[in-house]
Amino acid sequence: MKNTGLLLIDIQNIYFHEGEYLLTEPEKAAINAQKILELWRTEGHKVIHIQHNFKVSKEQKFLTDIYKEVMPKEGEIIINKDYPNSFYQTDLLDRLREFELNDLVIVGMMSNMCVDTTVRACKDVGINVVLLQDACAAKRLVFKNQILQGDLVHKVFMASLEGVFAKVMDTQEFINGYMNEV
């Protein structure tokens, strides 16, 4: 586990407030992300936070902040991005190579956008991924006038990533397995 980093993707206030980015049960996902973050910190493993640069008004700037439950601590890396893929036009890959991280545990938001895109990109650059599905959340989508609830969207994206792109697990299942390895 020493060469495994934790990547927290876009767990930001915007996903917890009414509006076009409100997700389905983001609080549950954040609590699970916090559990794995605390474990990573206790064990002294590398933590990388990804923060999306949303275009909001000055009055809404707080929406772009990282959510309180997973607020970065001093020494943890924060990478800002403008696109769904956390590698695109960022130094994420350079950082992973610098720290010799070939494996990532990934949590974050949105399952159907930045998490999906980043997990798929990991495959392209040879990074192995464990995706903690209950530490991720999706939003409701509309397709051809049909509403697809956020929990269904989330499940579809997790199912499509399972196997080829990531090992998809629950947070507690991962923690139990991790604790048995130590």
Written account of the structure:
The protein is of the alpha/beta class and 182 residues long. It has one domain (4-181): Rossmann fold (3-Layer(aba) Sandwich), CATH 3.40.50. 34% of the residues lie in helices and 24% in strands. It contains 5 helices and 8 strands. It has helices at residues 26-43, 92-98, 111-124, 150-161, 171-181, and strands at 4-9, 47-52, 77-81, 103-109, 128-137, 141-143, 146-148, 167-169. The strands form 2 sheets. A 6-stranded parallel sheet has the order 3-2-1-4-5-8. A two-stranded antiparallel ribbon has the order 6-7. Helix 3 packs parallel to helix 4.
Task: Give structural attributes.
182 residues, alpha/beta, Rossmann fold, 5 helices, six-stranded parallel beta sheet
- What is the helix/strand order? EHEEHEHEEEHEH
Percentage of residues in strands: 15-25%
Distance N to C terminus: 9 Å
Tally of individual helices:
5
Sheet with the most strands, sense and barrel status: 6 strands, parallel
- Assign the structural class, choosing from mainly alpha, mainly beta, alpha/beta, alpha+beta, or little secondary structure: alpha/beta
CATH architecture: 3-Layer(aba) Sandwich
Side-by-side strand order of the widest sheet: 3-2-1-4-5-8
Low-confidence stretches: none
| Count of separate structural domains | 1
Give the C-alpha Rg: 15 Å
Would you report the number of β strands?
8
CATH topology: Rossmann fold
Return the average pLDDT rounded to an integer: 95
Q: Find the CATH superfamily.
A: Isochorismatase-like
Q: Give the fraction of residues assigned to helices.
A: 25-40%
At the first level of CATH, the class is Alpha Beta
The shape is globular
